[in-house]
Amino acid sequence: MKIYTQRIEHISEGSTFETVELSFDTRQKSRFRATLKNGTDIGADLPRTGILRSGSFIATEQGDILRVDAKPERLMQVVAKTDFDLLKAAYHLGNRHVPLMLTPSALYFEPDHVLAEMVVGLGLTVNEVEHPFEPESGAYAQHAHDHRLSPIKAIHAHAHH
């Protein structure tokens, strides 16, 4: 089983990699097991430097690269007749400190009938959907890098601006 131990910022153009779709819950963990679409089991033992965002890359000590994508999962979708109504719903959901994904036309949160009833009470529409979940990281989230030397440092060449 391949074990992915490094987060990488960028990969070189033309690099080959496999992909895996993971739920938001799994992408929050630094240690997990998963199965690739081809049936291969993999493991991850990553530095605890935050959530794996959709499109993130991780690598093994040997330089094997894996792109992590957000897996579609069961979510509540909030839609509104006006932008202002959607903004109001985002405000009220944000006050509940729940992970919330914002898009220009909808809000998404993990299933919670109490929150859904609150939003419907505000005059918005709530639907249960299958959708990748990429919630906002929050105003206080930190962006961290792992600068330990590794065999793949050539593909971890990034600049701090």
TrEMBL record:
Task: Describe the location of the UreE urease accessory N-terminal domain by residue ranges.
Answer: 2-66
- SMART domains xrefs: UreE_N (SM00988)
**Gene Ontology molecular-function annotations:** nickel cation binding; unfolded protein binding
Determine the domain of life of the protein's source: Bacteria
One Pfam match: UreE_N
Q: Which GO terms describe its cellular component?
A: cytoplasm
- GO BP, one example? protein folding
> What are the subcellular locations of this protein?
Cytoplasm
Q: Does the keyword Chaperone apply?
A: yes
Chief place where the protein resides: cytoplasm
Keyword vocabulary terms for this entry: Chaperone, Cytoplasm, Nickel
Q: Which family does it belong to?
A: Belongs to the UreE family.
This molecule's function is given as: Involved in urease metallocenter assembly. Binds nickel. Probably functions as a nickel donor during metallocenter assembly.
**What is the designated name of this protein?**
Urease accessory protein UreE
- Gene encoding the protein: ureE
